[in-house]
Write a structure and sequence with these properties.
This protein has 110 residues and is an alpha+beta fold. The chain is built from 2 helices and 3 strands.
Length: 110
Protein backbone atom coordinates (compact mmCIF):
# COMPACT_ATOMS: atom_id res chain seq x y z
CA UNK A 1 0.00 0.00 0.00
CA UNK A 2 1.43 3.36 -1.03
CA UNK A 3 0.15 6.84 -0.34
CA UNK A 4 1.18 10.18 -1.77
CA UNK A 5 0.22 13.78 -1.04
CA UNK A 6 0.25 16.59 -3.61
CA UNK A 7 -0.62 20.24 -3.13
CA UNK A 8 -1.39 22.61 -6.03
CA UNK A 9 -2.15 26.31 -5.92
CA UNK A 10 -5.13 27.28 -8.12
CA UNK A 11 -5.18 30.98 -7.22
CA UNK A 12 -4.18 33.28 -4.41
CA UNK A 13 -6.15 31.64 -1.57
CA UNK A 14 -7.35 28.30 -3.02
CA UNK A 15 -5.26 25.16 -2.86
CA UNK A 16 -6.04 21.75 -4.29
CA UNK A 17 -4.77 18.98 -2.06
CA UNK A 18 -4.64 15.48 -3.57
CA UNK A 19 -4.38 12.34 -1.50
CA UNK A 20 -3.28 9.45 -3.70
CA UNK A 21 -3.72 5.89 -2.44
CA UNK A 22 -2.38 2.93 -4.39
CA UNK A 23 -3.38 -0.57 -3.41
CA UNK A 24 -2.40 -3.83 -5.08
CA UNK A 25 -3.86 -7.21 -4.29
CA UNK A 26 -2.16 -10.40 -5.40
CA UNK A 27 -2.01 -14.09 -4.76
CA UNK A 28 1.12 -15.25 -2.96
CA UNK A 29 3.55 -17.36 -4.94
CA UNK A 30 2.79 -21.06 -4.44
CA UNK A 31 6.39 -22.15 -4.98
CA UNK A 32 9.69 -20.37 -4.64
CA UNK A 33 10.63 -18.55 -7.83
CA UNK A 34 7.04 -18.56 -9.09
CA UNK A 35 5.63 -15.27 -10.31
CA UNK A 36 3.12 -13.43 -8.11
CA UNK A 37 -0.35 -13.31 -9.68
CA UNK A 38 -1.95 -9.83 -9.49
CA UNK A 39 -5.67 -9.70 -8.64
CA UNK A 40 -6.26 -5.95 -8.67
CA UNK A 41 -4.42 -2.63 -8.85
CA UNK A 42 -6.23 0.48 -7.58
CA UNK A 43 -4.99 4.07 -7.92
CA UNK A 44 -7.39 6.31 -6.00
CA UNK A 45 -6.97 10.08 -6.20
CA UNK A 46 -9.16 11.95 -3.71
CA UNK A 47 -8.88 15.73 -3.73
CA UNK A 48 -10.24 18.74 -1.92
CA UNK A 49 -10.02 22.47 -2.53
CA UNK A 50 -9.08 24.41 0.56
CA UNK A 51 -9.30 28.16 0.94
CA UNK A 52 -6.81 29.56 3.40
CA UNK A 53 -7.78 33.00 4.58
CA UNK A 54 -5.87 34.71 7.35
CA UNK A 55 -3.32 31.87 7.48
CA UNK A 56 0.07 32.94 8.77
CA UNK A 57 3.37 31.76 7.33
CA UNK A 58 3.85 29.54 10.40
CA UNK A 59 0.54 27.70 9.95
CA UNK A 60 0.37 27.62 6.16
CA UNK A 61 2.41 24.44 5.60
CA UNK A 62 0.84 22.52 8.47
CA UNK A 63 -2.67 23.35 7.26
CA UNK A 64 -1.97 22.04 3.75
CA UNK A 65 0.21 19.04 4.62
CA UNK A 66 -1.34 17.87 7.90
CA UNK A 67 -4.88 19.14 8.38
CA UNK A 68 -6.09 18.95 4.75
CA UNK A 69 -5.08 15.29 4.24
CA UNK A 70 -6.39 14.46 7.72
CA UNK A 71 -9.82 15.65 6.52
CA UNK A 72 -9.59 13.84 3.16
CA UNK A 73 -8.22 10.50 4.36
CA UNK A 74 -11.30 8.96 6.05
CA UNK A 75 -13.45 9.37 2.92
CA UNK A 76 -10.67 8.08 0.62
CA UNK A 77 -10.11 5.08 2.92
CA UNK A 78 -13.85 4.32 2.90
CA UNK A 79 -14.00 4.63 -0.87
CA UNK A 80 -11.10 2.19 -1.30
CA UNK A 81 -12.67 -0.36 1.06
CA UNK A 82 -16.05 -0.08 -0.70
CA UNK A 83 -14.49 -0.34 -4.15
CA UNK A 84 -12.67 -3.56 -3.26
CA UNK A 85 -15.71 -5.04 -1.52
CA UNK A 86 -18.05 -4.19 -4.42
CA UNK A 87 -15.58 -5.82 -6.84
CA UNK A 88 -15.92 -9.07 -4.88
CA UNK A 89 -12.70 -8.89 -2.86
CA UNK A 90 -12.31 -8.57 0.86
CA UNK A 91 -12.40 -4.88 1.85
CA UNK A 92 -9.02 -3.24 2.29
CA UNK A 93 -8.72 -2.13 5.91
CA UNK A 94 -6.29 0.75 6.27
CA UNK A 95 -5.12 2.10 9.59
CA UNK A 96 -5.25 5.79 10.43
CA UNK A 97 -2.23 7.75 9.14
CA UNK A 98 -0.46 10.22 11.42
CA UNK A 99 0.09 13.05 8.92
CA UNK A 100 1.81 15.17 11.57
CA UNK A 101 4.46 12.46 12.10
CA UNK A 102 4.94 12.12 8.34
CA UNK A 103 5.38 15.87 8.04
CA UNK A 104 7.91 15.95 10.91
CA UNK A 105 9.89 13.06 9.36
CA UNK A 106 9.90 14.73 5.94
CA UNK A 107 11.19 17.99 7.47
CA UNK A 108 13.88 16.14 9.45
CA UNK A 109 15.16 14.44 6.30
CA UNK A 110 15.25 17.75 4.50
Amino acid sequence: MDSELNTKCNCSANFEVELILRCQGHLPAQREGEEIVPLFDVNLIYAGIFTLQHATAETFETLLLIEAPRLLYPAARNMLATLCREAGFLPVIMQQIDFAALWRNRRAVG
